[in-house]
Structure formats: structure tokens, C-alpha cells
Amino acid sequence: MAETHAKHHDYHLVNPSPWPVVGALFAFVLAVGLIIWMRSGGGGDGVFYVKGPSVFFIGVLGVLFTMFMWWRDVIKEAHGGDHTPVVQLHLRYGMILFIASEVMFFVAWFWAYFDAALFPAAVHPLDITGPGGAVEAGKEIIGMVDRDKLFGGHWPPKPNEAFRGTFDPWGLPLVNTLILLTSGTTVTWAHHALLNNDRRGLVWGLLVTVVLGILFTACQAYEYAHAGFNFAGHMYGSTFFMATGFHGAHVIIGTLFLTVCLLRALKGHFTPKQHFGFEAAAWYWHFVDVVWLFLFMCIYVWGAGTPLAH
């Protein structure tokens, strides 16, 4: 009878789990709260007297709770011997596909930036059509959006009241680049220490990487506070903050990822042959490094204009 239930393959058939359903439910709550919040114009009152921000943050907390519990179960599976070499290979495939999707995510923001940068004098029709392409009642097509009038025919725009200048790429942006590149070397140091069963090197490498990630975020926050432009009402500001801001969010996520790995390393969870959690975090961090290099070269260096006067 025991032989009937014995596993004769290298694959892991997961036990029934509530987290996919719970995660989908809270993701739905998050989306509904965000929609209500936006439809109320950033205020509080929304549909059926439900405040959008409250619903949104309930959904966020629920998603975070689901992530914590689900990943806790995955760690238990790893310690239980369920992550065989075949399972680890498939986990790596999943991480590779996830990073590929993140690459395409950033392609959208680079596309928006280069569309404005390469065609600063382009003319676009003003879109005031309603659903199905029909012109909304009581409205007429009143003209075209002329970027030449907005940007002066070149990119970045000339300094004005709404745009006082770009960042000097060889100042704080260069410092931030060096910080992030250094963090890429320290996480590699930690990886090689783990492969050689050097626990001390693993912990120190992760600790230094986490500190550098926090330092990068602090420097970027300082940079944002001293920007010569805002997000709203200006195309340069919107493209700049969307691209660099989402990268900053990824740095924060990666820092949390590596912090969890540091705590697990202190508990002795990783071995030279089984450490997919750390490997996934290292891959994610290297992806963040590469994206920043492209941002630095394209937006800060190639797109440099009149430096902001302090």
C-alpha cells in the first residue's frame, strides 16, 4: 500500500493551496480600489460611498500577506526535499521568463522617451473621439498637438518656467551608477562565496549589497527632490519619472528580495547545491543593474541638455 503512494519521478506535485484564490481575490480588491480612487479624482468618495484609497490599501496588504505566506510554503517545500534538480531547473525557467517580461515592461518606457526625443517637432492629431471612434457629442476637432511649440523643436526642451534644466550626468547620476555597479560585484561575491560554502563571505556580500541598494534609493530620492521639473504637465518630466521611477521601484523590490536572502543565509537555509532563492534574487539584481546602465546612457548622458542651475 505504501508503495502505491511512493513517488517514482523527479517532479513535484504541489499540495492543495489556498493562496492562488486568496491572491486573486485581493488583487481584484486592489484593482477595484484603484479604479474608484482614480475615478474620484484622487479624493476619497467613490462608488457606493466606498473610499477608493481604503479599498486599494486593503488590497495591497492582502497581496503582500499572500506573497509572504505563499513564499513561506515554497521555502518549506525546498527544505522538505521537493525541489529536485528537475524542479530547480523549471524554477529557473520561470525566473528567466519573468525577467524577460520585465525587459518588455521597460521597453515601453524607453519607447515613450525616444518617441519624444527623436521627434520633438512631430505633429499629432488631438484625440477627442469617444468609444468606437465616434466624435463625442458637442465636441469638434479643434486642432493638432504640435510638439514644436511645446519643445522648441529639439530635445530636451529649452529651460522655461516648467522646465528649469536637466541633471548633470557626471554628478549624482554617475555616483548612483557606481553605487549600483558596485552592488552587482558584491552580490556576485556573495554568490561565489556560497558556491564555495563560505558562509561568512555570503553574509557579508549580501549585507554590503543591501546597504548599497538602500544608498542608491536615498540618492535617487535626493535627486528627485532637487529636480528642475515636475511629473505633471510636462512630457520630459513624465517620461523621465516613469522610466527612472519604475526602476527605483525595482531597486526597492530587489533590496527587499536580497534582505530576505540575507535573513535566510543567517539561518543557514542555502547550500552550495540548493540555493535557487538566492540565485533568483541575484539574477533580478543584475537585471536592475543593466536597466540602470541603459537609463544612464540614454536619458542622463545622451539626453543631456542645459544643466539645472543651483
Characterise the protein shown here:
This protein has 310 residues and is mostly helical. The chain folds into 3 domains: 2-82, Helix Hairpins (Orthogonal Bundle), CATH 1.10.287; 102-120 and 160-302, Four Helix Bundle (Hemerythrin (Met), subunit A) (Up-down Bundle); 122-154, no CATH class. 64% of the residues lie in helices and 2% in strands. It contains 8 helices and 2 strands, in the order αααββααααα. It has helices at residues 19-39, 52-79, 85-118, 147-151, 172-195, 199-225, 235-266, 276-302, and strands at 123-125, 144-146. It has a two-stranded antiparallel sheet. α1 (19-39) packs antiparallel against α2 (52-79), α3 (85-118) packs parallel to α8 (276-302) and α6 packs antiparallel against α7 (235-266). The longest helix has 34 residues, at 85-118. The termini are far apart.
